[in-house]
Specification:
By secondary structure, the protein is α+β, with helices and mostly antiparallel strands. The protein has two domains: 1-44, no CATH class; 48-132, Thrombin, subunit H. Helices cover 15% and strands 32% of the residues. The protein contains one helix and ten strands. It has a four-stranded antiparallel beta sheet with strand order 3-4-5-6, with no helix packed on it. Strands 7-8-9-10 form a four-stranded antiparallel beta sheet, with no helix packed on it. Strand 4 (62-66) and strand 5 form a beta hairpin. It starts with a helix and ends with a strand.
Length: 132
């Protein structure tokens, strides 16, 4: 009895640790995309993407990026529900930065000389060239 209880606590603790570290385990079946452990809900946001890059927009919206920033899903309710995945662009990709002064969300791809900018917390995006 004690070993089963310990195993259950250990697996719950590992899922919580994975969630904190952004390493939620992948699901082979997208239909089975939700796991519950100790009240923590882990959702698979993108098919075949285990560890999306995440940030928080200035308005509090959660932003989850996949495929090196080419796809995005947004949540405006703390992760309870998510928008459909949107494609930012074939050339999109790079590092995401939220400018805390302007509220703009920036996806910087210096190797390509491109910047994708959202002035509305990740709802719409505009491609810009980086000139140095």
């Amino acid at each position: 009895m004690k070993s089963r209880s310990f195993a259950k606590r250990l697996s719950s603790g590992m899922l919580i640790l994975f969630a904190i570290m952004g390493m939620a385990p992948c699901q082979a079946d997208p239909a089975a995309a939700v796991e519950r452990a100790g009240g923590l809900e882990i959702k698979e946001l993108f098919d075949k993407t285990c560890i999306p890059s995440m940030d928080v927009a200035a308005d509090g919206a959660l932003l989850a990026f996949a495929d090196s920033g080419k796809r995005l899903r947004r949540s405006e309710d703390g992760g309870n529900s998510w928008s459909e995945a949107q494609q930012l662009g074939e050339e999109a990709g790079g590092n995401v930065v939220v400018d805390r002064n302007t509220g703009d969300v920036l996806m910087v791809s210096p190797g390509k000389g491109l910047l994708y900018r959202s002035g509305d917390h990740g709802k719409t995006w505009k491609k810009e060239s980086i000139v140095i």
